[in-house]
Specification:
The structure holds two protein chains of two kinds. Chain A is of the alpha+beta class. Chain A is 40% helix and 26% strand. Chain A has four domains: 11-228 and 303-386, Nucleotidyltransferase, domain 5, CATH 3.30.420; 229-302, ATPase, substrate binding domain, subdomain 4 (Actin, Chain A, domain 4); 393-501, Sandwich (Substrate Binding Domain Of DNAk, Chain A, domain 1), CATH 2.60.34; 505-602, Substrate Binding Domain Of Dnak, Chain:A, Domain 2 (Up-down Bundle), CATH 1.20.1270. Classes of the chains: A alpha+beta, B mainly alpha.
Chain lengths: 603, 185
């Protein structure tokens, strides 16, 4: 492989998952995960906001989810790019409250402030960015971020916004199953037809790809952005809550801490069932005990409807890819939920071959993102991803019917051009309503945005000719441009997204996040200077017992004592530069002492 | 507007080798895909986006024989517009009438129409295959002589094909089996 890593900066690959997030990087030895400060590769996608405003992310936040549930958020990915109407039902199980005015962008109430899902995701991204910066010792500001293949335009835009808020230039959004195929193809297979079955914490994707001589061409993709391990957890949690209600005679569902403890217990029980035939849900809380055995057979029966929901998209994907089951050479399993035995057997039945489970299903997406980052940097030039748009794009026409412009599974970038005219004499603007989805009627699809073509010359009805170009870029995100065919002049297009943040909102969040990052950075620098100060104070303490110290002239001893006292005075001031200056003074005052001590040891 | 044939370096023929098309597509993708231009100035990146979207649109059109023929008809000045799928080919009138009755019954929950629909599905699928053959031989005729009369015949054949295709899809949808549950309860 031709690899040149010397000329480009560090572009990282990030898997921003529902349950866990990872950051990875590729060098000459291949892609690898960058561990956090605690050595862990997985950063739990949990965020907790302390009353002081301090942001806690990952494993420490997971603990706070139990003790401070009302200030903690998990699975925020399920809320990205969505309106309140989409997620009302499942919000009931989350411990945090949703503030009013959440119709087009959900607002989470954490303490006295509200946060949007992109802001919460940005906190996770910032932690990953920090981990990478500490690992490399240089700033990291460019990333490839993965998204579920079945994410719509609003969900993709929300992810891109999260990256911007975190101070990352998002060079590319890559579909998770495609990233997995890239990591897999690099490792195992150069050609053939590969299916990737990706069942994560909150989303399900199925993609079928053709691998040929370094080209990874997605033939078709399908999925459900609201289906994953969370649904299994919620199902078991409801059952356990009912049990507790009847055994203890109390409704635990109103007790956030109790619910989170029980949730943790059902997750542990679920995970054990991937390895043993019988497991149990155990909770000890406020002096009471609950225990329930659960066998694999019952578990399978309970989760069968959930696993079943993945099979319809698989069948549709095979059909859309235009391949037969027998032509598929390999099925690659991705996502933590594919460890579930019933998932494996269902996939084996459907594809009539044993799924490929050698790769770590938690890591393979991040590794693939790192490979794509290397492709974009130019370091890897013999691989190319050709991905598709998962959903058809259309516009509203007469009677609320959709006219499709770009069909699902079209390779991206893809475009379509449509000519619009006016319906009334003197009309100067045309409103275009763009939707995503496969259904015939506008109301059954996802409203994407309304594009307002303004400043059309007032003419007789039907005389204007406005050519509108719809372009889906390599990230799967739509842009619209318009041109007057009579005059050839470009038209301005005002975009009103149906769901999501406006550009001004994102800008404001970037500013706030920047300030937060500055605070975080200065806190870290202060901590580092205190560590330095501790070291030098300890050394001076020892030296003061040394003969060389007593042999110094009185004024030099006094200078040393003075500098030490001044350092001690500023030690608790939150100003790293002041501490550093005083450390330097101690250094200067003790040069002679240090030299003398060194001579003493030599003679 | 980029000419799709020109973009691929192909002459305007209706029969194409799909292997050759794919090879050209992969080669051009390697050159034009936006991934190759990430480190380049904005103007070059924009051009790559335009070029590769045109390439993908062209590939999608040319790899499918029907879309390819419709595209060729379009650039040769034929008005393809909306397929007039509501005009029933006269020789099919009676059969379509009966089919619609059977579809109605089936959708109303009357399963006794099933055998008739299955028979109709076979008949129309056979008709579709025949039309495809007719289209195929017209393609060859066109590639040999490039006559506009042939293109006109192709347009009519494509309209008929579209009509039959719609019938077949409709019957398939109505007859579609319900997937078996994972664990029978």
């Amino acid at each position: 492989m031709d690899i040149d890593f010397t000329s480009t900066g560090h572009i990282v690959g990030i898997d921003l998952g529902t349950t866990n997030s990872l950051v990875a990087f590729m060098d000459l030895t291949g892609p690898r995960i960058i561990p956090g400060g605690d050595g862990a590769q997985l950063v739990p996608s949990v965020v907790s906001i302390a009353p002081s405003g301090e942001v806690v992310v990952g494993n420490p936040a997971r603990e706070l989810l139990i003790t401070k549930p009302e200030r903690s958020v998990y699975s925020v990915k399920r809320l990205m790019g969505r309106g309140l109407g989409d997620v009302g039902e499942e919000l009931k199980l989350f411990p945090f409250r949703v503030a009013s005015g959440s119709e087009s962008v959900i607002q989470l109430q954490l303490g006295d402030r509200t946060y949007t899902p992109p802001e919460i995701s940005a906190m996770i991204l910032r932690q990953l960015k920090l981990n990478a910066e500490e690992y490399f010792g240089v700033p990291v500001d460019k990333a490839v971020i993965t998204v579920p293949a079945y994410f719509n335009d609003a969900q993709r835009q929300a992810t891109k916004d999260a990256g911007r808020i975190a101070g990352l230039e998002v060079l590319r959004l890559v579909n998770e199953p495609t990233a997995a195929a890239l990591a897999y193809g690099l490792d195992k297979r150069e050609s053939g037809i590969v299916a990737v079955y990706d069942l994560g914490g909150g989303t399900f994707d199925i993609s079928i790809l053709k691998l040929h001589d370094g080209i990874f061409e997605v033939l078709a993709t399908n999925g459900d952005t609201h289906l994953g391990g969370d649904d299994i957890d919620n199902l078991l949690l409801r059952i356990a809550l009912e049990d507790v209600a009847s055994e203890w005679g109390e409704d635990l569902s109103r007790d956030s801490e109790g619910v989170q403890r029980l949730r943790r217990a059902v997750i542990q029980a679920k995970e054990r069932l991937s390895f043993v035939p019988v497991s149990s849900i155990e909770l000890e809380y406020r002096g009471k005990k609950y225990q329930r055995e659960i066998g694999l057979e019952l578990f399978n029966k309970l989760i069968a409807p959930i696993v079943d929901r993945t099979l319809g998209p698989c069948r549709n994907c095979i059909k859309d890819a235009g391949v037969s089951v027998d032509e598929i050479d390999e099925v690659v399993m991705v996502g933590g939920s594919t460890r579930t035995p019933l998932v494996r057997s269902a996939v084996e039945n459907l594809f009539r071959s044993k799924p490929h489970t050698e790769l770590n299903p938690d890591e393979v997406v991040a590794l693939g993102a790192a490979v794509q980052a290397a492709i974009l940097s130019g370091a890897v030039d013999n691989k190319l991803l050709l991905d598709v748009t998962p959903l058809s794009l259309g516009i509203e026409t007469m009677g609320g019917v959709v006219s499709k412009l770009i069909h699902r599974n079209s390779t991206i970038p893809a475009s379509a051009t449509e000519t619009f005219t006016t319906g009334v004499d003197g009309q100067t603007n045309v409103l275009i309503h763009v939707v995503q989805g496969e259904r015939e009627l506008v109301k059954d699809n996802r409203s994407l945005a309304r594009f307002d073509l303004k400043g059309i010359d007032p003419l007789l009805a039907g005389m204007a000719r406005i050519e509108v170009r719809f372009l889906i870029d390599a990230n799967g995100i739509l842009s619209v441009t318009a041109r007057d065919r009579r005059t050839g002049k470009e038209h301005s297009v005002e975009v009103k997204p149906s769901y999501g943040l406006t550009d001004e909102q994102v800008e404001k969040m970037i500013q706030e996040s920047f300030e937060q990052a500055e605070q975080d950075l200065s806190a870290r620098q202060v901590r580092e200077q205190r560590v330095e100060a501790d070291a030098i104070l300890l050394a001076v303490d020892k030296a003061r017992k040394h003969d060389a110290y007593f042999e110094l002239p009185d004024d030099e001893r006094a200078a040393i004592d003075k500098s030490v006292n001044e350092l001690l005075l500023v030690y608790h001031v939150d100003d790293h530069q002041l501490i550093a200056a005083k450390i330097e003074e101690v250094n200067q005052a003790t040069i002679k002492l240090a030299e003398n001590m060194l001579k003493g040891t030599q003679t | 507007m980029t000419d799709y044939y020109e973009l691929f370096g192909l002459t305007r023929s209706l029969n194409l080798s799909l292997d050759d098309l794919q090879k050209r597509y992969y080669d051009l993708s390697r050159q034009l895909h936006p991934d190759r231009f990430m480190q380049k100035p904005e103007a070059e990146r924009q051009r790559a986006l335009d070029m590769s979207s045109a390439l993908n649109d062209a590939h999608r059109t040319l790899k499918d024989p029907i879309r390819r023929a419709q595209y060729l008809l379009g650039i040769e000045g034929f008005d393809i517009g909306e397929q007039r799928s509501k005009d029933v080919p006269p020789e099919l009138l009676e059969e379509v009438f009966e089919l619609n009755m059977a579809l109605e019954e089936m959708r109303g929950g009357d399963d006794s129409a099933r055998p008739q629909l299955e028979q109709a599905e076979k008949n129309f699928s056979r008709m579709l295959a025949e039309t495809d053959q007719q289209v195929q031989s017209l393609f060859e005729q066109y590639d040999g002589a490039q006559s506009r009369d042939t293109l006109s015949e192709i347009r009519n054949a494509l309209n008929r094909r579209k009509y039959i295709q719609n019938l077949v899809s409709e019957v398939e949808r109505t007859l579609a089996p319900v997937p078996q549950p994972l664990i029978p309860s």
